[in-house]
Amino acid sequence: MASPVSPLIALVRRICLNEEDIEISQKRIEETVSSIQQRSPVERFEIIAQIDGILQSKGSNKQVVATFKHALKEINLAESWRSALLNPFFKRKIKVVFPFQSYDNNLEKPLTYEERVQTFQDEEMTALFGSTFATNKPHRLNLSGDHLLDSAHAGICLSRDRSFQGYALAIGDGSGGHFGDSSQDKRIAKVSHLATKWSVEIFSSYTDPNELTKAIPSIVSVLDTTIQNRIWGEGTTLLCCRVFLAEKGYRVVGFNIGDTMLCYWDITKRKLKTLAPARVSEAGTAIFPSAYRSEEIIVFDEHLPCDSTILLMTDGVHDTLSYKEKGGEYSNGLRFRRRKLSGHNHDLKSCGEALKEIPLLLMKKSIKSAENLRKSNLQNKDVQIGDDGAILGCRLRKT
Question: What would the DSSP string read from start to end of 1-16?
């Protein structure tokens, strides 16, 4: 029995590479897309990866490719041809990719929130991206600033009748970089971007939290293969979650690879809690897709009350905040540290109803901590402190 992808692959090869002289109709495209949409999200993503390889191949007709992509988009009025095949009912709200942060990194210059952080905001979501990097090494001084290698994607999940079904969010911390090689920085940022973008797109396609939990190993595997086929040798941490409507409140399912962290603020109990701790092993943080072990794919499945604010953050933020660590050991004997935030409940109790207040307060604390570290190093030589840092916050609406 022929795979449902076969007709569409044949169509792509025909219209982009002129390999066959067959009649192409919108009806046939719609029928083929409909059959593909009956498959699992992971299988649909694999099909998209195959098609993408053909569309990007040398010799493809750019004008015809654009026409074909438009034809796919029109089927479900999706935001892209990928969405038409994977999930046309996901509405992206936050997209942060390789943002440029303008600042003077001289250790002599005080760190301020206004110069070091930028905001990307929607009614239900907010992302704060910045840098605490400062140095007195002459060859590292930079008056203009730099691109940040963290990435974030997030949005709202809808049903076919456009009713609200929850959220999908991801954040990634590009590994390494900032050594003066702009081409490497772009590759690192691209990996972080693709990992967060594609994981959110796949997660948003699931309507059953139990099915998603079972599928996470397959999702990680297909993301790994697809990204390494596109960009080899670079990596990122990756934290992704799908927030489902539940009988009471929400159910949050996802995975964490590396030293990113997932927390939430319980507005009723006025407490900050860690859902997915940051982990660092004796061998360093896990890096996706280039350097991680199966034991380092940490899956979580939690229930949260309505009106909670979930917070995804990179180590550039939580390194500078108060935390507690506890040791552990994987089945292969590799030891690791598990980190949770602590001691911030008192500060956060002053926060009101606005979504932006909690990420803002945590980021300001991060900048203040980095500023204290800067002051303590002013008399030292060859100093380099700080990191890129990002927080992605989402206020879970009342249902």
Answer: ---THHHHHHHHHHHH
